[in-house]
Structure formats: structure tokens, C-alpha cells
Specification:
heterodimer; A: 279 residues; alpha/beta; Rossmann fold; 4-stranded antiparallel β-sheet; 12 helices; globular; B: 289 residues; 6-stranded mixed β-sheet; 21% strand
């Protein structure tokens, strides 16, 4: 069974004429770090909203086909149940944080699910260590910096032990060094907790080195979904007007001029390894 | 081209929030007419606070700000907004009308135009920003990128002399960024002065000639962008990361490939590597002979 499966899924918001998702077929499996990319308006956020039942249950609109999460139809399963399997972190964590202090914020979801106290304490301890927010427990969420808020938002979802963590442009409001730290944190979470992480992100320089799959969206459709290096070296990625990593652009150009014959490197480290062997 | 008299002069400006947090400390800055200036620095460095003082949204606790040699202390935000247009980071906070068309019309109100002039200008700006197809749509029903476009359009329609953008490339794809760059270029040609607050290092490297770097409410550096954001110490201090090409340049040097530090753009890097590879293959084929 797949973690998430879209089958011939179409969706349009009630107020719009065009479909925001058009015949989506997609299968998401265990323990992957997946980048969702496409131009603005290509349907990334809409696709994410389908993953925990917000679409079609919360956003009014029309749909065909189905989305299953662990075999359960998202149109019929309560969002609360789906949310324990699929945790979503949106761009602006401020809208997601509601409690008076960080510790309570993190415990809130578990309290609602009736997780026993001992188990709660165990999970909190583990997650705050992983997300490096031990020193923030007594603070009010609004006192925190953007990067700290984002960590708390991630922690409050991780304690629910979801199978998939979905993040919609999580670093958009952060400065570059904090953005870099958050992406590295996500990679560590994926490795340690064996969860699948799906991230939509415009700063591809930052994420591409860490992901293992890429989904390309264009005009409400899935253009390609595959292993990172295959997608990076394909024509679709080349053609799409998205913020490609600078290293990608440099090596594609060299490849085009027949000065470089291998796969385009996904990171500076990979590019350097190539030249080390070259010497 | 920038002219030789300063359009904006910031003189010893301090600002503290009511809770005592000091956001700006002794800011001194001159921005010339026709200049394109970037303001960079980590979250909380004071960038947004500084630009808010330019149209009077925030009044300095100490010090003065002059625009066109006039002290703006006694001017209302309404008056200043005619000259200084600020496009904020989160466009959702800036749009509030029922439809896209009404949003632009509302913004034009302060110009006291006739009904037909207002309609003409509205049509013109919606077309320019490719928003005419969404005319009847609620701004809340646009994608993030389109909302941002609408926020920019609603400021542009008033044609202010100084344009200030807070994180314009945030959440924008390559197509939208190139649209934005064209827009900036055409405004520069008209002699507009443009200030851009940004974290986007690659963007700043390529398009912004001068950068003001802020940290902890102070200006820590002010000069040519290429010098400032390839400076490892300054960059670390201000929580930026080095541009990809600079990182790659340093890494090449570490493995013994002498890449000169004058190479910090994509194109010069491509040329350098192309030469390097060609020379190497010559050496290799020479050895084989």
C-alpha cells in the first residue's frame, strides 16, 4: 500500500472556472525526501491541501477521482484522523501556533488525541532534542523568531508521529542561513524518523542537494515524478521556467557545449568531486 | 544614471519600539535619485523598520529624514505615500477590496482623477500586469504570486518617485522574477529611485549595484554588492550565505584549482571552467602523444 495515492484526481475551487488539478496520478512511498516544484499557480498548494483531506472536505469545489491516504479515502475519512498520518506545515507558522507557551503548543495535538501522559513526555523530549528547541519551552510562540517558530511548528506536528510531513514553502520567510538550517533539520528528521517529507520550495539551491525524488507540476498536471537525478537531467526540468540551482545552470551549459558529459551535479559537493577525480 | 544630489537623507536616526526594543541605532544613509539600492541582513536586523520610516509609517525616536531636501517630520503618511510607494512582503495584508479591479480603483482614489481617467488608468495597469483576466475575481482567490503582482500594481498605478520593495522575489518563480526585473528596469529608465529589501543573494548579485548591509539595527556595510556579499566575514556576521558561485569558487581553490576571486557570476564561472577543461584535455592528449 502506498502512503498517499492520487488516482485520476481532478479538482477546481468553487469560484474558479479552470481546474487547479487535472487528472493527477501520483504515488508517494515510505521514507523519501520529495521536492514539489512548478511555477506559481501550477497547483502545488492545491495538491498539498488534498493530502490531508482539506480538499475536498474543507475547501468548497468540484472533484473527480480519489485520493487515498494509507488506503483510506480522503473524501470520507475525518480530517482529524488524516492529520495524524499526514502533518502539514504552512509557509507562515504564526497562523499555526495558538498556545501560550511552546511546551503546551507541542502537547496540544497529543492532548486532543488522548495520548497517555507518559507517552506524551517521552515524545516531547525526543522531538525537542531533534528540532533543537529545548531552551524555548517556556516562551510564548509570538516571542520567537521566524526560524524558531518554524521549528516549533515542525515539532508540534512531529510529536503526532505522522508518516508524512508536508511543508509548503517552509523557509520563505526566513533569512538564508536559517533557511539552510531548517532544510538540514528536515533531512535529519527524514533519516532518523524514517518519515516521508514532501516540500514545496522556491530556493532550489538549498533543497536539491538533499532530496531523493522530484515532482514537476505544470498547469495543474504532473509533468514528471521520479528520482532526483533523472528528473534533473531530463528535458522537462530544463524547459520549466523555475529558479534552477546556479550549479545546475553552470553544468548544463558546459554539457551543452560538450565540455562535460556526466549527469548534472545536484550540489556543489558533487561538482567538486567531479573535478577532484578530474585532476 | 544616479544624479549627484541625494534624494533621501537619513541623519542619525534611532528607533525604539514601545516595549523598549531598539530597532534602529544611529542610521546614516544617503540614497541618490535614480539609484537602485539593496538592503540586506538577517531577520530582525531592522530592514523593514528602516523602510517604514521613509513614508512615515514609523517616526524616528531621534534623528531626521529628508526627502528632496525636505524634512519629512511634519508630513503625513498620506502625503508621503504619493512620493514613496512601499510594497510589503506579505501582499495579503495589502489587498482588501472585493475584486481585483476595485483594488486598483481604490488605490487611484487619492489622485482625484475623473471617473473615465480612473477607468483608463485601471485598464492600463491591469493589462501591464497581466491581471485583466482576473478583473472580476476576489483578490483572496488569487495565487500567492498573483496577489503579489496585484499589490505591486496598486502601488505602481500612483506612479511614486521612490519605489520600495520588501522581499519582492519571495515565493516567486523564475518567470515572475523576470517580469519583476523588467519592471524595475523600465522604472529605472524613467529615473525612479528603487530600494529593495531582499534575502535573495543570487538576485542581488546579478541586479543590484549597491547594497546596504544591516545587523542589530545598524548599518554594518554600504558599498558595491559584489564586494559586500562575497565577503566571507560580513556574510557570516549577517546570517547570509555566500552566493553559490562564491561557495563553488572557494571549494575549487580548496582542491587546488586556482579560480580567481574575481569570478563571482554564473557566466564568468562557465568561461573559467570551459577554459580549464579545454586546457586539461590538451595536456592529456599531449601526454598521450
Amino acid at each position: 500500500m502506498h502512503l498517499i495515492e492520487f488516482h485520476n484526481f481532478h479538482f477546481r475551487y468553487k469560484k474558479n472556472k479552470e481546474y487547479q488539478l487535472n487528472d493527477i496520478n501520483l504515488k508517494i512511498d515510505d521514507n523519501k525526501f520529495i521536492l514539489l516544484c512548478g511555477q506559481t499557480g501550477s497547483g502545488k498548494t492545491t495538491l498539498i491541501r488534498c493530502m490531508n483531506g482539506l480538499i475536498p472536505q474543507f475547501y468548497p469545489g468540484f472533484y473527480r477521482g480519489y485520493v487515498n491516504v494509507l488506503g483510506k479515502d480522503t473524501a470520507e475519512t475525518p480530517i482529524a484522523d488524516l492529520s495524524t498520518e499526514i502533518g502539514i506545515v504552512f509557509q507562515n507558522p504564526e497562523n499555526q501556533l495558538i498556545s501560550m507557551n511552546v511546551e503546551h503548543e507541542i502537547a496540544f495535538g497529543m492532548e486532543n488525541l488522548g495520548v497517555p501522559r507518559e507517552e506524551m513526555e517521552k515524545r516531547i523530549k525526543e522531538v525537542i532534542k531533534l528540532t533543537e528547541i529545548e531552551h524555548l519551552l517556556d516562551k510564548a510562540p509570538f516571542e520567537l523568531s521566524g526560524g524558531e517558530q518554524q521549528r516549533v511548528a515542525i515539532a508540534s506536528i512531529l510529536v503526532l508521529e505522522p508518516r508524512v510531513l508536508v511543508l509548503d514553502e517552509p523557509t520563505a520567510l526566513l533569512d538564508p542561513s536559517m533557511a539552510d538550517k531548517i532544510i538540514k533539520l528536515l533531512k535529519r528528521i527524514q533519516m532518523e524518523k524514517r518519515v516521508t517529507i514532501i516540500i514545496s520550495e522556491h530556493r532550489m539551491d538549498l533543497v536539491i542537494p538533499y532530496v531523493n525524488e522530484i515532482i514537476l507540476l505544470e498547469n495543474a498536471q504532473i509533468l514528471e515524478h521520479g528520482k532526483r537525478d533523472e528528473v534533473l537531467n531530463g528535458e522537462n526540468f530544463q524547459r520549466l521556467n523555475i529558479n534552477k540551482p546556479v550549479i545546475y545552470s553552470v553544468f548544463s551549459k558546459l554539457k551543452h557545449e560538450k565540455l562535460y558529459k556526466e549527469q548534472v551535479p545536484a550540489s556543489i559537493d558533487e561538482a567538486i568531486r567531479y573535478f577532484q577525480n578530474y585532476n | 544614471m544616479p544624479q549627484d544630489y541625494p534624494l533621501i537623507v537619513v541623519n542619525d536616526v534611532d528607533y525604539s519600539y514601545l516595549n523598549g526594543t531598539v530597532a534602529l541605532k544611529k542610521i546614516n544613509l544617503k540614497i541618490f535619485k535614480g539609484e537602485l539600492v539593496g538592503i540586506m541582513g538577517k531577520n530582525g536586523a531592522g530592514k523593514t523598520t528602516l523602510i517604514r520610516t521613509f513614508n512615515g509609517l514609523i517616526r524616528p525616536t531621534n534623528g531626521n529624514i529628508y526627502i528632496n531636501a525636505e524634512n519629512i517630520k511634519s508630513k503625513t503618511t498620506g502625503t508621503l505615500s504619493q512620493k514613496v510607494g512601499i510594497i510589503f512582503q506579505n501582499p495579503q495584508h495589502q489587498v482588501f477590496s472585493n475584486t481585483v479591479e476595485e483594488e486598483i480603483k481604490y488605490s487611484l482614489k487619492s489622485l482625484n482623477l475623473s471617473k473615465s481617467e480612473t477607468q483608463f488608468k485601471t485598464d492600463e495597469i491591469l493589462k501591464k500586469f497581466n491581471l485583466d483576466k482576473y478583473r472580476e475575481r476576489s483578490p483572496l482567490n488569487l495565487s500567492g504570486g498573483e496577489t503579489k503582482k496585484l499589490a505591486v500594481a496598486s502601488i505602481f498605478c500612483r506612479d511614486p518617485e521612490i519605489l520600495i520593495f520588501d522581499e519582492p522575489t519571495l515565493g516567486q518563480d523564475a518567470k515572475e522574477i523576470s517580469f519583476f526585473i523588467e519592471l524595475i528596469n523600465s522604472e529605472m529608465k524613467k529615473g525612479k529611485t528603487i530600494i529593495i529589501v531582499t534575502h535573495n543573494i543570487e538576485f542581488a548579485m546579478e541586479y543590484i549595484p549597491r547594497t546596504v548591509l544591516m545587523a542589530d539595527g545598524k548599518i554594518v556595510a554600504d558599498g558595491p554588492t559584489k564586494k559586500i556579499i562575497t565577503h566571507e566575514f560580513l556574510v557570516t556576521k549577517s546570517a547570509l550565505v555566500l552566493p553559490q558561485i562564491s561557495q563553488f569558487n572557494l571549494a575549487l581553490n580548496k582542491i587546488g584549482i586556482a579560480c580567481p576571486d574575481t569570478i563571482y557570476s554564473k557566466n564568468t564561472m562557465i568561461e573559467f571552467l570551459a577554459d580549464y577543461i579545454r586546457n586539461k584535455s590538451k595536456v592529456v592528449s599531449g601526454e598521450n602523444n
